[in-house]
Amino acid sequence: VASAPLNICGKRYATDENITNVTQSIVDLTGRGLHLKDSHPVGILRDAIETKLNSTDGAFKCYNEFQPVVSIYENFDSLGFPSDHPGRSKSDTYYINGEQLLRTHTSAHEMECFAHIQNGESKQSGFLISADVYRRDEIDRTHYPVFHQMEGCRLWMRNSRGDHIKQIQDDLSKLQSQLSQQKTKIIVQDDSSLEGNPKQAYMSHNEFELCSQHLKRSIELVVAEVFERKLESMRREKDLEIPSELKCRWIKAYFPWTAPSWEIEVWWQDDWLELCGCGLVQQEVLKNAGFPAESTISWAFGLGLDRIAMLLFEIPDIRLFWTQDERFHSQFQKGVISTFKPYSKYPGSTRDIAFWLPSDKDFKNIHTNDVMEIIRTTAGDLVENVKLIDQFTHPKKLKKSLCYRINYQSMDRNITNSEVNEIHNEVAKQLIETFDVEVR
Ligand code: PHE
């Protein structure tokens, strides 16, 4: 069923009443290009990583302006996502219509960028893609429906003479020498066995070893560089004896389009911090990009820029990235990782909302992300946090009750109690209309 078309980044897209779950408040967040801004934490971090990765051999072509609308094929099918993969569900992903969605990851552009290498449009053997990505999720200090990722890929053409082996060896030794020049030493622990995470059969053991080492050392170089900058600024700002060692570990992971797959974690502030997923690219993806079967070997990684930027710049709330407040933007400058100095925070105001689910529906029929979406659509960036604080089933009436606690708080201005009441009433009204619930 057709409904009003959506205008996203200057293009019109048909919608479908039964499928579309992108709301206008999400559309309003497209095209902001935070990752392109020189003096925005996300932009500064992107620039730092691009510069470092290209300092070894300049192999990476940088794509930073892809539009956020992609096809379901690009986001999922071309990457080998099974048809029942949970990532495809409407509760997790913003669909525009039956064919298009807001990309959920930068991997959606891998096939296209590999194709540029295949058809000679790009002369470089690798690429980096940075972009805004969209996921339906909870509302709290670290989650926002839009965040930024950087994808990195590298590719070698195989030949029977084994020239590529020599090439990867050379590339790897350049990387290793660069790593050894970093002031911060990475202590790596490799916990990733290949059990249940095997190499692709077409690769020789040697190819596999070289390619995965090149991948791991490339990511370690990024980690060393980024955390080195942070440690340096901590030394400067806090005048502390700070160790110049960083503990990292490799663990196995699963992604439909890479095999084997790994994740790197960094020991930071007494916890393992998950930084980046990666792996050796499946032949299927490269075939979709036009390469003959088994003609290439390639690796890919994807890292979330916002979470790393929050940690490096000590940003307490992800919504700050989206503020227009000069007190935020004036603090950052190109190339510098500095500590954010909080300015006076406007007070927040908490409201609870409790409701009975209609008796013919069970909890499964109302997904928390759908409740979050209603709240976000109604209150926008005035919601700081939403928590499900209570749920119980009435033993006699066999009805289920849910209670959400919403904290309203603006990054940019004071909001009055009566304004909060008005918004909160509207949230209640929207919940009643959408889910047919009974407010308690
Ligand atoms: N796209 C993956 C994610 O969003 C990350 C990834 C990229 C993993 C490339 C492997 C290879 O989690």
From TrEMBL:
Q: Which SUPFAM superfamilies match?
A: Anticodon-binding domain of PheRS, Class II aaRS and biotin synthetases
Which chemical reaction does it catalyze?
Answer: tRNA(Phe) + L-phenylalanine + ATP = L-phenylalanyl-tRNA(Phe) + AMP + diphosphate + H(+)
What are the subcellular locations of this protein? Mitochondrion matrix
Gene Ontology biological process terms in this record: phenylalanyl-tRNA aminoacylation
Sample GO molecular function, one term: tRNA binding
- Which NCBIfam families does this entry report, sorted A to Z? pheS_mito (TIGR00469)
Q: Which UniProt keywords apply?
A: Aminoacyl-tRNA synthetase, ATP-binding, Ligase, Mitochondrion, Nucleotide-binding, Protein biosynthesis, Transit peptide
Known EC number(s)? 6.1.1.20
Q: What does this protein do?
A: Is responsible for the charging of tRNA(Phe) with phenylalanine in mitochondrial translation.
Q: What is this protein called?
A: Phenylalanine--tRNA ligase, mitochondrial
Q: Which residues are in the FDX-ACB domain?
A: 344-440
Q: Which domain of life is it from?
A: Eukaryota
Residue span, Aminoacyl-transfer RNA synthetases class-II family profile domain? 131-342
The organism encoding this protein is Zygosaccharomyces mellis
Q: Give the UniProt family note.
A: Belongs to the class-II aminoacyl-tRNA synthetase family.
Organism taxonomic ancestry: Eukaryota, Fungi, Dikarya, Ascomycota, Saccharomycotina
Q: Which InterPro entries match?
A: aa-tRNA-synth_II, aa-tRNA-synth_II/BPL/LPL, Fdx_antiC-bd, Fdx_antiC-bd_sf, Phe-tRNA-synth_IIc_mito, Phenylalanyl-tRNA_Synthase
Its cellular-component GO annotations read:
mitochondrial matrix
Q: What class of enzyme is it?
A: ligase
